[in-house]
Design a protein that fits this description.
This protein has 341 residues and is an alpha/beta fold. Helix content is 32%, strand content 18%.
Amino acid sequence: MVIILKQHPDETQLGSLMDWLKKQNIQVTPTVGAHQTILGLVGDTSSIDMDLISALDIVEDVKRVTEPYKKANRKFHPDDTVIEVGGTRIGGGSLTLIAGPCSVESEEQIVGIAKAVKASGATVLRGGAFKPRTSPYSFQGMKLEGIRLLLAAREATGLPICTEIMDASQLPLFEDIDILQVGARNMQNFTLLKELGKTKKPVLLKRGMACTYQDLLMSAEYVLAGGNPNVILCERGIRTFETYTRNTLDLACIPSLRQLTHLPIIIDPSHATGKSALVPSMCKAAVAAGADGLIVEVHNDPPHAKCDGAQSITPAAFDKLSGQLRAIKEVCGEDHRDVII
């Protein structure tokens, strides 16, 4: 349930209302927006009399939230969530470019790529230290050494780091990481999500390849319910009958999720297509559709990459692409992101 307050509500009446709700074992989360203040109610609200609350002088409207996800729901939080990390704003109409190699391979590689993508406009560095692979015989990442090299790249460039965490037991190892990425295979690892809810670090949550929008938002709800409001949604393609591309990129998720949730929406065209030649076009389409950002795999030598070289673009290609993306963003403006509820 959400309670929409009138502008400048009487503080005494508001305090009395919140105290009464808490006595009903209802968790109350105030959200102060540009034009409205909303009280989000979580708990058993079935016994709450909507008419009684609507009659209060400070209340403009009362609505029940029927969807199972509450804190991720735009009804609960009408204004876009904006997440700030390392001087970068993610969400709220900004265009965040996250770029870097699929996996960290050496200090020279990761630092060199970090410097290149920063010069081209990227504001977050991605790179895998721990790599979940379909085959147990594939390169599994440099692990702790990979984290050390990511920190060296951050020291050299100032870029915040985004890297994947695979298990709750790894949290102490990621203490210095800026954004914790949850991969598609772990989207419904609820034990991990609960632990991430206890942190305040931004969590980039990738959609599972066979998961619906509601599945994704329910996974985000686990993190939000734990007390961590810093969740970024990431579309990385879903599995369909098409085999030409690695997955099928669902760009309709951008306007669809925009209606359903206030959380930032990032697109990963690299994993979605699996082909570097398709990445630029999908990046441009995602920006035109209103994405809050992109996470793109960039490698200095894709043919010899230890992981996913076929879907990685070169730093030169990223430099050209970033300029085109900024131009598209400027042309489209903010009107195409408007939410109609």
